């Protein structure tokens, strides 16, 4: 069935070109024609092709339309919260000190191991609804809070169940190598073998699992272990993401380039050499300003330098119960513009088109012929207003595959 989305005051395509305004490729007073969930035409309403009977019309009522937000790094499947640890950090304890006392990631692991797949999916679906209300139409979800075979498989099952229950596009990532669980600290080689073997193979049997991630950092995994895990993932046809250079520069940028990773994430401490290697290898740098903000130390990734070095940069929420319990991508864009040297154009591009690239997709995160019809309608004077007027939602409707899936018009 054809659908016509009309009466758009500003259509933000993320595809600059002739007849379009600025770096975001804005078309004023525009329409979008959709067929079977795919965009088949965009342009000014004055050039709109004639419509035959049966075309459903969605009136945008003069609102701004932009691509659906792509949140390319989240941990929305988990049990329990860690507000008590937040209180301890407010009193001066560091993330590392809390982890050494049995808190941190392992606190969430203990809670998640005690939950069924159905319980994990049910609690996560509430957060998926929250994400949708912010205009997120595509969402990456990592495992990594199970850290044993049974619990990781329950997380995978929960992600699969979520993908079938929500209109949001779900991309599952296997993160069995989040940290080494406490019971394997004296036999980590055995755990790495488990991750590379049965655990990963069985996770990859689920179509929703499209990638593998490894946390490379002091107290997590060494580069040599990451190479083994990544190579095992490649053999199964999985894409590669890496958590790197968050607390220290572990040459994560260069490692991601050598492995041909889709993305390297965090990058708070990445060196110039790492930036250059990622730019050359076209690894997307996924920056997580919410985690840097919530850490409270005022240190952010050097987005400006990365962009100037030729890197493709994306931004994600990194929603998780410990280091950033927020699913607000607009706040992340505001932080990027105020603290990380990005222009507002860049801050919008990195939560849409560039974030889609981090997931290996070029048919979402932008509005153009051949793309999926995933859009957000904003009741705002222009696309910059939600980034400027932070803390208030301007999302009035969310469209996925041409259907209004949240809000109304």
Task: Outline the structure in words.
The chain is an alpha/beta fold. Strands 1, 2, 3, 4, 5, 14, 15 and 16 form an 8-stranded mixed sheet that branches. It is built from 15 helices and 16 strands. It has 2 domains: 2-67 and 365-407, Urease, subunit C, domain 1 (Roll); 69-358, TIM Barrel. The chain starts with a strand and ends with a strand. The radius of gyration is 21 Å and the shape is globular. Helices cover 35% and strands 23% of the residues. Helix 4 crosses helix 5, helix 5 runs parallel beside helix 6 and helix 8 (252-259) packs parallel to helix 9 (272-281). Helix 5 links the parallel strand 7 (136-142) and strand 8 (169-177). The protein has helices at residues 83-90, 95-100, 105-113, 117-133, 149-165, 188-204, 223-235, 252-259, 272-281, 289-295, 303-308, 329-339, 344-349, 353-358, 385-388, and strands spanning 2-12, 26-35, 38-44, 56-59, 64-67, 69-71, 136-142, 169-177, 209-216, 239-244, 263-266, 284-287, 313-315, 375-378, 395-400, 403-407. The model has no long low-confidence stretch (mean pLDDT 96).
Features:
globular, 2 domains, eight-stranded parallel sheet, alpha/beta, 23% strand, Urease, subunit C, domain 1, 409 residues, 15 helices, TIM Barrel, 35% helix, single chain, eight-stranded mixed sheet
């Amino acid at each position: 069935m054809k659908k016509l989305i009309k009466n758009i005051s500003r259509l933000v395509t993320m595809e600059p070109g002739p007849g379009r305004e600025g770096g975001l490729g804005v078309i004023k007073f525009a329409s979008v024609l959709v067929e079977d969930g795919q965009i088949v035409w965009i342009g000014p309403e004055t050039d709109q092709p004639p419509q035959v009977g049966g075309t459903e019309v969605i009136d945008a009522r003069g609102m701004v339309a932009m691509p659906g937000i792509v949140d390319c790094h989240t941990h929305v499947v988990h049990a329990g919260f860690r507000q008590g640890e937040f209180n301890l950090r407010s009193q001066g304890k560091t993330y590392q000190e809390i982890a050494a006392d049995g808190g941190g990631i392992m606190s969430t692991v203990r809670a998640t191991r005690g939950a069924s797949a159905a319980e994990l999916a049910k609690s996560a679906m509430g957060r998926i609804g929250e994400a949708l209300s912010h205009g997120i139409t595509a969402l990456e979800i990592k495992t990594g809070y199970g850290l044993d075979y049974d619990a990781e498989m329950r997380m995978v099952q929960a992600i699969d169940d979520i993908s079938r229950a929500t209109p949001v596009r779900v991309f599952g990532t296997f993160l069995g190598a989040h940290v080494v669980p406490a019971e394997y600290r004296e036999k980590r080689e055995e755990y790495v073998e488990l991750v590379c073997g049965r655990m990963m193979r069985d996770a990859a049997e689920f179509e929703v699992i499209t990638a593998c991630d490894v946390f490379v950092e002091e107290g997590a995994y060494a580069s040599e272990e990451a190479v083994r895990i990544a190579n095992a993932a490649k053999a199964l046809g999985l894409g590669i993401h890496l958590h790197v250079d968050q607390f220290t520069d572990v040459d994560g940028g260069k490692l991601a380039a050598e492995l041909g990773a889709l993305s390297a994430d965090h990058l708070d401490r990445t060196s110039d050499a790492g930036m250059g290697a990622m730019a050359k290898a076209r690894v997307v740098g996924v920056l997580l300003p919410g985690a840097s903000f919530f850490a409270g130390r005022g240190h952010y990734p050097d987005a400006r330098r990365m962009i100037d070095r030729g890197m493709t940069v994306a931004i994600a929420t990194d929603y998780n119960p410990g280091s950033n319990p927020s699913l607000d991508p607009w706040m992340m864009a505001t932080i990027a513009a105020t603290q990380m040297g990005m222009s507002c154009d860049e801050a919008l591009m990195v939560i849409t088109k560039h974030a889609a690239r981090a997931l290996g997709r070029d048919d979402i995160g932008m509005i153009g012929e051949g793309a999926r019809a995933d859009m957000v309608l904003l009741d705002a004077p222009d696309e910059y207003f939600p980034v400027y007027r932070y803390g208030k939602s301007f999302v009035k409707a969310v469209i996925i595959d041409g259907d209004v899936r949240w809000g109304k018009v």
